[in-house]
Amino acid sequence: MSVLYVASDQPGAGKTSLCSAFALLLRRQGQRVAVFKPFADSGSDPDATAYRDLLDQDTDGWPISFGSELFADSVAQASGALSVVSGQADHVIVEAAGAMSAQDTTKLADAFDAKVVAVAGYRPALTASDLSPWTDSLNGRLSGVIVNGVSRYAGHSVTEDLVPSLAEAGMTHLGSIPEDRTLLGASVGQLAAHLGGRFVVDDPDTSMLVERCQVGGMGLDPSKLRFGAETDNAIIVRGDRPDIQMSALSVPVTCLVLTNGIDPIEYVKYEAERVNVPVMVVDSDTIATMDALAGLVEGASFDHPRKLVRFADLVEQHVDLAAITAALDGDGQSKRLS
Fold this sequence. Notes:
It is a single chain. Helix content is about 40%, strand content about 20%. By secondary structure, it is α/β, with parallel strands linked by helices. The longest helix has 15 residues, at about 70-85.
């Protein structure tokens, strides 16, 4: 059994996404993979739930709350839990707690005899010096660095500036993953919970993923152009505009959000149920509803099967997965997967 430890320089860098994607891709290759997060920054941590729901991973008993310092008994407890999680696995992928230092990461990596991948969330000011504590502390266990969430027009800067500086600092660049709209999406159910919406159709499918929110207003273009140009969108429209609501329902949309606390007329409800489009009503007006959606995007979590599949595709396209598996197998030979 080999262990891959995924750490980050700051919380929210994408460790859960990366661990899940690694597990999925290795399983596709016929490998037996377990995922494990021994410690969390607080008692309530959603990552274990994500691993259970997305990867069918048994998460009973972990993670445990992590204090300001990692003590020897905590390391021993984590090592014991790892032996249980590993079972008959070929590989175990371990996620670090968000606030864990390079020194504490080294303690666990040594205890687990693990190779380490550091994931850095992209920001314009990111430099190799931000990640130097990892190379200084890990004593050769660091397999490389992955830069996650690179914005559309930052790719040139990463390639020309950041990657060479990583090489000069002795760090292997394993890949840069671009940001992606799917990963910022929310389910219809999460959208309703965030907005305080109530569903007005029978048996709404609340699991569908919403990637875009669009205001439904008057326009000269046909509905196919107004509402059908993008996929996986929620249409935000006043509750007293059945004409616009029906126009939106004539093309594939994910859901309707009716504002001002006004229920739809019966024909709109009938048509929505016929085409299986959830309809919710919120008390706020359209502008306030759109403003409230900003908080939903900021709090997006990795908790949907489509997000897992999409991120695994991005990892396969942009990360040297072969180098990581070679490090786990003790083989220095690697090549980028195409």
